Amino acid sequence: MLFWQILIDGFAISSLYALGATGFALIFGVSGVLNLSHGALMVTAVVAAWAAGDQLHAGPYAGAGLGVGVGLAASMLTYFLIVRPLQQSRKIREEEKEIFILTATLLWGIMIQELIAYLYTNNAKTVAPIVEGVVSIVGVRTPSNEIFTAVVCWLVIAVLWLLVNRTRAGKAVLAASMNPRGVTLLGIELSQVYIAVWAIYGVLVGIAGVLLGMFLGVSSYSVGPLTASAFSIVVLGALGSVSGALIAAYVVGYLETLTAYLISPAYRTIPALLLLVAVMYVRPQGLLGRR
Amino acid sequence: MSKFVSRGISATLSASAAVVALTLATPSYAQSNEPIKIGVIAEAQAVAGSSIPQAAQMAADEINAKGGVNGRKIEIVSYDDHSSAAEAVRAFQRAANEDHVNAVIASYISEVVLALEPWTGRLKTVMVTPGAASDVITQNIAKDYNNLKYTFHGYLTSTSLADQVCAAAQDLLVNNLHMKSAVVMSEDAAWTTPLDEEYLKCLPKIGMKVIDHIRFSPDTTDFTPIFNKIEGEKPDVMVTGISHVGVQPTVQWKQQEVPIPMIGVASQATNSSFWNDTNGATEGVLYQAVSGPDVAVTSKTLPFVNAFKAKYGNFPSYCGYTAYDEVYYIADAIKRGGTDPDKLVDALEKTDYVGTIGRVQFKGKDSPNPHALKIGADTITGLMLQWQNGKQVNLWPPGVANGKLKFPPFIKLGSAD
């Protein structure tokens, strides 16, 4: 019974981690940006979806739609306001740009966090679920919303996979992640690829955020932990590798669930962090690293 | 002098500066037409805390409209502590040393109030808390009365909170529904330590066996494993102590359709916005409070609630009621005793004021909890409310009840039998 409980709960939470980390990995893979405002963008999407229901009295679908839209807008704003000016700056030396962008996105995330706390308080927000009720799976009373979360996550990941591997634009993105100079030689504008990637990332962040808001809820305090979890999943899987991030998301999700059920919910995140440290020692390139 | 000293130094040096300030400052308590200043240090970014400065301002405006205190207006000076004890201490120092407030109303978080408490003695500044609960606040006063007598506990102690939950549970759950067992589930925080201790004592006395006692981290986001464990133990009810968390356990309780009812102290549930914050998941949640939006605890309660709603657009949180009363009885004490801190303490100790939450009287110097509120039928009884269809309905005590106990369909009563 406990076995099935852990299997089902772990699957839902892992799917959500996978979706959240995929976008994070994609951005790094293509443009080398470690976006430390990731958690803040997710929380922004949740708060928008919550506010749509709470203040504009929108239905669950409209609320979710608005959340994803705001996630996309916040992502584009991050790119144009924070990341791009630094990438194009002539005052910063090329090899220092990564650390500048890292710091800038971290500060940007903190600004968003404070703004949300100021405008909407630091109390937790939840998004009205699209599906309600529970179903019994092998005797485990499972919220339908949990199944919905897992299904949507995998649908979105599948669509992303098709987009990257089956469309011309997607192939350009893939090529850019392998060899940015080669792509420019083919006549593809690299900045166009970046915009496309940040747009995809924004949609992924929006969907992941809204699903998280329906499933567990978030507050402005969640900004740091959400960024940290995406970061550790992506480092664990191999920086920039989307498939590595997917596998790592399941490793982390199940490790956390096992800890929460078998040891104590208070120690939930600790074993995954220890694993991360261990991987750093033994296999610094990550689980699926190529280098 | 003290102003320049404390302005120039960094926060780490402020402790020694305060000592300097104490020895150098010779505050003048001249009766003039200068306004009476009341500092309000609160968590403006938290739903519960945001009502504190709002309610205090409302009380001040009302008193000023009627001519003030002995011809002096009341001025509220607000500080946001961002739920941080360190920021609250800095605000308190600034309030006392630079803004020269006559009294401070501070915080709903016990950790914050416990950090401020020694400073009330060092800076000889009266402080009343509208929402912290830990018994340790008043136990400290008993240990060091001469230094800490400037602290007053304007809200119930955790022990009193637990006792009220037990008294209500006895009527509503034991006598009515024949419940026999409970699991105590509280967040790990300063205020829940004495709360849980008292739960473990008073629940068996009302005939409820405590099967398990769970303390979880306030950082918990996924409550599934906790609910799962509790459900496996088959208690009749979960008895809660939650304040820093609230929305997440409630939403997940509903989403997972955990068939066990929740009763207890759930501070966030006292907020009128809690229904929308949880998208209605709070239906059926039972929570203790000293006041409720539709409950005429005294003749002052409903006029306050309605005026607050008209002014700010939402109902006050639990510490809005207490903060509002506090401005009134601080003003009353200043009227009787003046603004000299020691005389103000004497006057506050003699407080006998009927406010929005009941009749306010403080326990004396010889009590184990000096300056805690007196609790009982002729002072403050407390209430037990339940969320029903978007409304906070009061069920207990019977005299002021305006509804009947009702649970959502997924709750299975008596699942233990």
Q: Could you please describe the fold and organization of this structure?
A:
The complex is a heterodimer of chains A (291) and B (417). Chain A is mainly alpha-helical. Chain A has one domain (2-282): ABC transporter involved in vitamin B12 uptake, BtuC (Orthogonal Bundle). Chain A is built from eleven helices and two strands. In chain A, strands 1-2 form a two-stranded antiparallel ribbon. In chain A, helix 1 packs parallel to helix 5, helix 1 (2-31) runs antiparallel to helix 10 (242-262) and helix 5 packs across helix 6 (168-178). The model of chain A has no long low-confidence stretch (mean pLDDT 90). In chain B, the strands form three sheets. A seven-stranded mixed β-sheet of chain B has the order 7-6-8-9-10-13-14, sandwiched between helices. In chain B, strands 2-1-3-4-5 form a five-stranded parallel β-sheet, sandwiched between helices. Chain B is an alpha/beta fold and 417 residues long. Chain B has two domains: 2-156 and 298-360, Response regulator (Rossmann fold, 3-Layer(aba) Sandwich), CATH 3.40.50.2300; 159-289 and 382-400, Response regulator (Rossmann fold, 3-Layer(aba) Sandwich), CATH 3.40.50.2300. Chain B contains 15 helices and 14 strands. In chain B, helix 1 packs antiparallel against helix 2 (14-24), helix 4 (85-97) packs parallel to helix 5 (110-122) and helix 14 (318-337) packs across helix 15. Chains A and B meet through helix 1 and helix 10 of A and helix 10 and helix 11 of B.
Beta-strand percentage range of chain A: under 5%
Flag low-confidence runs of chain B: 1-13, 18-30
Name the CATH architecture of the largest domain in chain B. Answer: 3-Layer(aba) Sandwich
C-alpha end-to-end distance of chain A: 42 Å
Q: What is the CATH top level name of chain A?
A: Mainly Alpha
- Helical content of chain B (DSSP H or I, runs of 4+): 40-55%
The geometry of chain A reads as globular
- Rg of chain A is 19 Å
Enter the CATH topology name of the largest domain in chain B.
Rossmann fold
Care to count the β-strands of chain B? 14
The largest sheet of chain A is: 2 strands, antiparallel
Number of domains of chain A: 1
Estimated radius of gyration of chain B: 22 Å
Major beta sheet summary of chain B: 7 strands, mixed
Largest interface: A-B, 35 and 34 residues
